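Blinded run. Sample ID left blank on purpose so nobody reads anything into the name before looking at the predicted structure. Input follows.
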Amino acid sequence: MPARLCRRGVVSAIASCVLADRAGAAAGAPTPVMVIPSIHKRLASNPHYSYKDLYALVAAFQPNLVGVEIRQEDLARPDAYLHHNYPAEMITLAQYYNSRVFGFDWLGGALQGRAIPDDWWTKQSPIKQLERSCDSSPANLPPRMAQLNARLGALSREQDKIAGTASAASLADGTYDRVTAAYYQVAAELLRGTQCEALSQWWAARDQEISANIVRHVRQNPGRRIAVVTGCDHHGPVVAALSRLSPAVVLVPVQRY
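Blinded prediction complete.
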């Protein structure tokens, strides 16, 4: 990851950096925010969007702050803990921009303010347990449910197709967001009234909490350049939430970089 240094001496450099960071806020300028969707492990295999591409994109934006999909309370925890619970690119960004990073992930009220147990994902998480029990579809679905299930499968394949070959810019152009919104809408309808309905409620709640956390940090840092790196499924809800802050916040298109 290319270094971005802001030093020319000691006292003068500190003063210059602080003044540069605060100039926009002092002048009442809008807050520029770039929301960058990540494809997590697929960054290792996508020929058009790699870990290196993501890190270069963030660096080129020259952010004053970087938001990552890690809970704020987990940012200072050991590397082994972070790698057990979070995507590799989020950890790398958090460590590289450690003096100007914030975390915005949310994993439910049960974990609020405490460490994630070692066996959370395999045994303790009620959502993961529900996902495993709801993973397979019954053989004989009613016609309407079968239609919804087929539609859900088609949307999932479309997501995979886009994420497997997209560049950062094309992933952020709204196409993937629309497919993903349709996926979760169909999933909510398919699961409504079943024992698995809590899954769609959880997915919606996580999007809302992640977006609210990001909005709070953006509001607390007016005029500063903020890069937000989030999983691609959350990109649409986050962009929608930040769009509602216009004109105080300006969303910077990923394709500019």
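Unblinding after everyone has recorded impressions. The first helix runs from residue 11 to 26.
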